[in-house]
């Protein structure tokens, strides 16, 4: 089956691209191998997306974006794009269901949580090690948990965990947080949160479930143990760029390089959201990227209209 534009990934970037592309009268298909919403649904509420005076549930926000795209005619397939041919004037996408030929691709595959890569992390994943406070936080009612990291995700999710846990340690490798000032202050004022500065987790131990963290203080060189029931890891993100890595230009960390029109180094192939090289990763910047990518895809298709074979 053929479309004008294929969007890979249905996070805020892909959803926004779908709204703009479909509203621009392009036959628009969105592929999502996981849940619609992407990384944002690993969080509970969004409080900095304009237009919401009160925090909005992340699920509701993305669900409405999807409905909005569908209202303009975008179709959604829960299929994983497993191979992609980007070189020709028509782009070819392969899924288990078949082959799709499209005029333009918007790559919005997002990013995934970075692992800590310490002994015990893999063994205890799902048994005390988690990357999603929204999913697992309620399991830690009246328990003691640690959050590793010092960015927006770590501090926001630590605050969320205080709804359940009796104590939340934030273990950060430096003595200053990277997170936005407003949430830093909220965390500093929360008496369930205790910071452990200049410290890294060296090992996660336990019998069946997580019981202890072995900590290393980078200033004093001292090793200590911390007893916890769970540990939430928020040490950054890795771009989901593997599908395009051999063809599309990436930066040294694997993020897709785009120009200001969201075009990659391949004509007709655009990228948007957390997967691209950018300075600010927020729902609003993802939505903005998606809108620009869809606008650019529309212009690109218009410009090359006579070169496309008939796509039915
Ligand atoms: P991030 O901003 O990259 O922060 C990662 C944190 O983990 C940093 O504090 C870093 O320490 C620490 N870290 C990295 N590797 C580590 C390791 N091996 N051991 C221990 N600590 C390690 O990642 P994020 O918090 O996941 O956020 C990702 C992006 O999404 C950011 O652009 C963020 O602004 C955005 N975001 C925004 C919101 C919001 O606006 N509400 C919410 C969530 C995320 P250093 O500080 O020492 O580098």
How would you explain this protein's 3D organization?
- The structure is a single chain.
- With 312 residues, the chain is α/β, with parallel strands linked by helices.
- It is built from six helices and 19 strands.
- The protein has helices at 12-23, 58-71, 133-136, 152-161, 181-189, 283-303; strands at 2-8, 28-31, 45-46, 56-57, 75-77, 83-85, 91-95, 98-107, 111-113, 129-130, 144-148, 167-171, 193-196, 199-206, 210-217, 223-227, 230-233, 237-239, 269-271.
- The strands form five sheets. Strands 1, 2, 5, 6, 7, 8 and 19 form a seven-stranded mixed sheet that branches. Strands 10-17-11-12-13 form a five-stranded parallel sheet.
- Helix 1 (12-23) packs parallel to helix 2, helix 1 (12-23) runs parallel beside helix 6 (283-303) and helix 4 (152-161) packs parallel to helix 5.
- The protein is elongated, with a radius of gyration of 21 Å.
- The chain binds NADP nicotinamide-adenine-dinucleotide phosphate.
- Residues 48, 116, 148-154, 156, 173-174, 178, 200, 234-237, 281-282 line the site of NADP nicotinamide-adenine-dinucleotide phosphate.
């Amino acid at each position: 089956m053929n479309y004008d534009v294929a969007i890979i990934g249905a996070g805020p970037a892909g959803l926004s691209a779908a709204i703009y592309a479909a509203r621009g009268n392009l036959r628009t298909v969105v592929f999502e191998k996981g849940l619609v919403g992407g990384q944002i649904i690993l969080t509970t509420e969004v409080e900095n997306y304009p237009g919401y005076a009160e925090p909005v549930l992340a699920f509701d926000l993305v669900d409405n974006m999807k409905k909005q795209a569908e209202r303009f005619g975008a179709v959604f397939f829960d299929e994983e794009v497993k191979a992609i041919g980007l070189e020709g004037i028509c782009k070819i996408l392969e899924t288990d269901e078949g082959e799709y030929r499209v005029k333009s691709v918007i790559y919005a595959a997002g990013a995934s949580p970075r692992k800590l890569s310490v002994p015990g992390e893999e063994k205890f994943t799902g048994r005390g090690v988690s990357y999603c406070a929204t999913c697992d936080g309620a399991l830690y009612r009246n328990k003691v948990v640690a959050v590793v990291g010092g960015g927006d995700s770590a501090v926001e999710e630590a605050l969320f965990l205080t709804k359940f846990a009796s104590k939340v340690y934030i273990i950060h490798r430096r003595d200053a947080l990277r997170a936005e000032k407003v949430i830093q202050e909220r965390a500093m004022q929360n008496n369930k949160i205790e910071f452990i500065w200049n410290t890294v987790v060296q090992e996660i131990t336990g019998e069946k479930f997580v019981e202890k963290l072995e900590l290393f203080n980078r200033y004093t060189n001292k090793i200590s143990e911390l007893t916890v029931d769970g540990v939430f890891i928020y040490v950054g993100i890795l771009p989901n760029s593997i599908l395009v890595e051999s063809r599309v230009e990436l930066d040294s960390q694997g993020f897709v390089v785009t120009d200001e029109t969201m075009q990659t180094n391949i004509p007709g192939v655009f990228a948007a959201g957390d997967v691209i090289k950018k300075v600010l990763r927020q729902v609003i910047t993802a939505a903005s990227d998606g809108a620009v990518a869809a606008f650019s895809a529309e212009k690109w298709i218009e410009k090359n209209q006579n070169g496309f074979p008939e796509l039915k």
